[in-house]
Design a protein that fits this description.
The complex is a heterodimer of chains A (113) and B (114). Chain A is mainly β. Chain A contains no helices and 12 strands. Chain B is globular, with a radius of gyration of 13 Å. In chain B, a hairpin with a 5-residue loop joins β9 and β10 (103-105).
Chain lengths: 113, 114
Amino acid sequence: AQTVTQSQPEMSVQEAETVTLSCTYDTSESDYYLFWYKQPPSRQMILVIRQEAYKQQNATENRFSVNFQKAAKSFSLKISDSQLGDAAMYFCAYRAGTYKYIFGTGTRLKVLA
Amino acid sequence: GAVVSQHPSRVICKSGTSVKIECRSLDFQATTMFWYRQFPKQSLMLMATSNEGSKATYEQGVEKDKFLINHASLTLSTLTVTSAHPEDSSFYICSARDPSGPQHFGDGTRLSIL
């Protein structure tokens, strides 16, 4: 069975600094997608970034980038120039052919002014 | 704007009541929708996969008779929590698979059973 693990329940970062959130996963599939979602207090699920497993190049979206290590089954999220609005719960998620998502337990990110 | 609409956003009702939650895809036809449950400070757990025109597929440990899912059209799936009790209080989120691209999440329903 596929699993997603986020080992950091909570992280803090100073405004304008960089922070990295960790995620590891386990799967026997070769074709899959990985995602990072942000969930603010409103509880909306906001897609931050996605990575296709067949792509070697790490995905980047403005201040957000990932370090995808397929062999190690690692998928970390780097947030550069952190802003107060980045404070939220961040969930790492895995999706394969069935289209259902498996979420990690989440990391609460605090941004300090 | 939102491409998946979930309604209601908040519901408070008495124990024993049945509650229906709707999930609508607004800009696309969704043959598959998903229902998740999120307890406070926990992750989203998949409850079931809703398939248009056929029976839902439930995850292990989820009671089919408790959580009724109907996906009667390509744009609407409903989750009915039957005879709800306080332990059913939770945040319920749906998502819909867009055939042309990503999956979209609804804004969730906060269910409180008194």
